[in-house]
Design goal:
This protein has 424 residues and is α/β, with parallel strands linked by helices. It is 43% helix and 17% strand. The strands form three sheets. It has a six-stranded parallel sheet with strand order 1-11-10-9-12-13, sandwiched between helices. Strands 6-5-4-7-8 form a five-stranded parallel sheet, with helices on both faces. Strands 2-3-14 form a three-stranded antiparallel sheet.
Length: 424
């Protein structure tokens, strides 16, 4: 039997695994631009035609999901699932309320200065469909907007061929506090929220993960509206030593790989025997997986990297800047102190990454493609603007005026200097 994980020995000079490239296929970019142009010029007509073309669904005249449909869906969702989604919404609201930037002000030498914080007026949340329904992603995008105080939150998600939206997705939209749900997906949904159509309102910021078409469309509308991030394939880096249980790690690797056939999974281990110990339990978990074909495809490009020590492990983590970092070592908090770049970390043998996927401790909309080097995951702060203010008294104008005027004249901006000078 072929090994399920390709092993790289970095201590012997094997090249380390590299993060996923950020570049998008030029054909996808051009295709997304064409879709956006249609949506901008044709509005709902384009949304209906594109949804028919790409999703096989006839949504003409019913792009918005009506309240009666959401009421009916609520009645069909299992009570245990409703309770879990309600609890997740409460956890996420509590988590994201802690992240809202605070207004502040101060006074120094006759000048009062500070910052004000305002929520954006309307936020657009995108939730993918296709291989699975994602009510958790509804809450992960809607709840931070609500915690930030956004006045209006709308949601776009692709429909099934019969035009329906999964019941759990509609219930999550209600539990999270979305004001409207629209049955449209892909690049056309991003265009609808960026430009506005007869049915879908134009928004101030668009957030949420999606496929390469959604990512390309978000990149195209960036600047017209705010966007959270450009999402790539989901990622997991697991750092493990001899204390890790191979049978549990096998479950963790399969859980990540079941997301997507292009999911990127890297095992970084200080124990040379761990990759071999993983083979049997990993094969068993793959065989038992309900998404075995997807898992096998993802594992085909997974690697196990052998490193000589924790310093080397931390260096590789920083180079990958992974979306999810799982640390299963004897002292996981101590290891985390060595690391700088990751989207969300899950520490110790009892902490499954799926805790974060379902709102225990973190949002699951996280940076991919090594963008954790400079960007956070989705936060309440994505939904606010921060503006500065300054108010000078006569004393303040006199105190700072000479300095302002000296620098302005050094830059050749006499008018700037004069504007200060006439006030003192």
């Amino acid at each position: 039997m072929l090994a399920m994980l390709r092993v790289l020995d970095l201590g012997r000079g094997d090249p380390p695994p590299a993060p996923a490239p950020v570049a998008l296929d030029p054909d996808v970019v051009e295709g997304a631009r064409a879709i956006l142009d249609r949506v901008r010029s044709e509005g709902d007509v384009a949304l209906a035609a594109l949804t028919k073309e790409h999703d096989g669904a006839d949504v003409e005249g019913r792009i918005r999901v009506e309240r009666e449909e959401i009421d009916a869906a609520t009645g069909r969702v299992d009570g245990e699932v409703r309770a879990a989604l309600d609890a997740m919404a409460e956890r996420l609201l509590d988590l994201h309320r802690r992240q809202v930037p605070r207004a502040w002000e101060d006074e120094r030498d006759g000048v009062r200065f500070g910052e004000t914080v305002q929520a954006v007026g309307t936020a657009g949340c995108y939730v993918p469909g296709g291989r699975a329904a994602y009510p958790s992603s509804v809450l992960m995008t809607v709840c931070p907007a609500r915690a930030a105080g956004v006045e209006r939150v709308v949601l776009c998600t692709p429909p099934a061929e019969d035009g329906s939206v999964p019941d759990a997705v509609l219930y999550a939209a209600r539990a999270g506090g979305a004001d409207a749900v629209f049955r449209v997906g892909g690049a056309q949904a991003i265009g609808a929220m960026a430009f506005g159509t007869e049915s879908v309102p134009a928004v101030d910021t668009v957030v949420g993960p999606g496929n390469v078409w959604v990512t390309a469309a978000k990149r195209e509308v960036m600047g017209l509206v705010g966007v959270d991030a450009l999402a790539g394939p989901t990622e997991l880096a697991v750092v493990a030593d001899a204390s890790a249980n191979p049978s549990v790690l096998a479950v963790d690797l399969v859980a990540q790989c079941e997301h997507d056939p292009v999911a990127r999974t890297t095992l970084i281990t200080l124990d040379p025997g761990l990759p071999a110990a993983l083979e049997a339990p990993l094969a068993a978990e793959v065989a038992a997986s309900s998404r075995g074909d997807v898992v096998r495809a993802a594992l085909a490009h997974a690697v196990a990297a052998l490193v000589p020590d924790e310093e080397a492990a931390a260096g590789l983590v920083d180079a990958l800047a992974p979306e999810h970092l799982q640390v299963v070592t004897r002292e996981p908090r101590a290891f985390l102190d060595r690391v700088r770049f990751y989207g969300a970390a899950f520490l110790g043998p009892h902490t499954a990454v799926s805790l974060g996927d379902y709102g225990v401790g973190s949002n699951h909309v996280l940076p991919t493609m090594a963008t954790a080097r400079f960007a956070p995951g989705l936060r309440a702060a994505h939904f606010v603007t921060v503006s500065a203010f300054t108010e000078a008294s006569a004393e303040g104008a006199a105190r700072f005026g000479p300095e302002v005027e000296a620098v302005a004249r050094a830059e050749g901006l006499d008018g700037h200097a004069r504007a200060s000078e006439v006030r003192r």
